[in-house]
Amino acid sequence: MLDRTGLILDIFAQRARTHEGKLQVELAQLRHISTRLIRGWTHLERQKGGIGLRGPGETQLETDRRLLRDRIKAILRRLEKVAKQREQGRRARSRAEIPTISLVGYTNAGKSTLFNRITEAGVYAADQLFATLDPTLRKIELADVGSAILADTVGFIRHLPHDLVAAFKATLQETQEADILLHVVDASDERFRENIQAVHDVLEEIDAHEVPTLVVMNKIDNLDGQRPRIERDDEGIPRTVWVSAMEGQGIELLFDALTERLASQMVQYQLRIPPQYQGRFRSTFFQMNCIQREEYDPEGNLLIDIRMQQVDWSRLEKREGAVLSGFIVT
C-alpha cells in the first residue's frame, strides 16, 4: 500500500519526460525505498541462524542496501553533471546581465499555461497534479529591461517530502538564483491562502524566501466580477497582478509590473577598494559583468563603478559581510 510520499513519487514518475526528470524521480524513489527497506527487513535481521552464521534476512538486507547505494551514487554522479551544466548557463546569463524570472506556485495553479501564454513555447500544460517536472527556460523581451529568462518549475505541495527537495535540487536552483519570482496562485481555489502558505514554506526550505516576489492571481475567468488589474503597496510598487492565463486577460499588465519591478531592482555604486582586496573583488565584479568604469587614485585604491541587480548585490553582501559595505563611496 502506498503512503503519501510513495503516491506523490508514483505520480512524479508518470509525469517525468526528460532524462534528467526521470533521474531525479528515480533518485527520490530509491531514497524513499531505502528507508522502508530497512523497516521491512527488521523482523528478518534477528534471524542469526546460529553462532558464526548470518541469517538469510541479514544477508538479503545487506545485498539490497548495497544495490541501492550503488544505484543512488550512479544517479548522483549523472545529476552532478547536469547541475554543473546549469551553473555554467546561470553564470553566462549573469555575465550578460540577463535577469531570470522563475515561476513558482502550488501544483495545478496554471504556471505552465501562463508560461505558454507569455512565451508561446508550447510547453506541456494540463489540468493535473505535477504536470511540469522538468525546468523549461525561454528568453523573453521586456521594455526598459531588455532580454530576460523565464523559467517554469515543478509545482509545490504542502509538506513537500524531503527526498523530493533533495532530488530536485538542480531544478529548484533556478528558483534560488532567480532575480524575481512569479508566484502563481489559483485565485478560484477555495484553499488558495493555504496554498500560498505552502509555497512560502517550500521557498524557505530551499532558501529562496528572500528572492523578490510578484504574486500572480490566476484563473480570474473562473470568478465573478474579477477584472485584470495591478495591486500596489504603499510605495506604489506592484505586488499582485490579477490575470487569466487561459483567456489571455491581464498579460500586458503582468509585463508592465515585471518591467517596473526589474527596472527598479538595479543598484549602482562607486566603490573604493584598498590594494589588498583588489584582486578578489575585481575578479568577482568582472565575472558578473557589472563594471561600468574603473581607475586608481593616488593612494593606489581602485575606484570602480558597478551596476547590477539588487538581488545579486544582496547575495554578495551576505557572502562578503561588512567588508564590502565599507568600500562604498556613493
TrEMBL record:
Pfam family, one: GTP-bdg_M
Annotated InterPro entries: EFG_III/V (IPR035647), G_HFLX_dom (IPR030394), GTP-bd (IPR006073), GTP-bd_M (IPR032305), GTPase_HflX (IPR016496), HflX_C (IPR045498), P-loop_NTPase (IPR027417)
Subcellular location: Cytoplasm
Residue sites binding GTP per the record: 105-112, 130-134, 152-155, 218-221
Annotated ranges, domain Hflx-type G: 99-266
Molecular function terms, GO-annotated: GTP binding; GTPase activity; guanosine tetraphosphate binding; metal ion binding; ribosome binding
GO CC list: cytoplasm
Names of required cofactors: Mg(2+)
Keyword annotations of the record: Cytoplasm, GTP-binding, Magnesium, Metal-binding, Nucleotide-binding
Residues at which Mg(2+) binds: 112, 132
CDD domains given in the database record: HflX
This protein's record includes keyword Nucleotide-binding: yes
Assembly, per entry: Monomer. Associates with the 50S ribosomal subunit.
PANTHER family hit by this protein: GTP-BINDING PROTEIN 6-RELATED, GTP-BINDING PROTEIN HFLX
Biological function: GTPase that associates with the 50S ribosomal subunit and may have a role during protein synthesis or ribosome biogenesis.
Family affiliation: Belongs to the TRAFAC class OBG-HflX-like GTPase superfamily. HflX GTPase family.
Protein name per Swiss-Prot or TrEMBL: GTPase HflX
Organism expressing this protein natively: Vibrio maritimus
Gene name as annotated: hflX
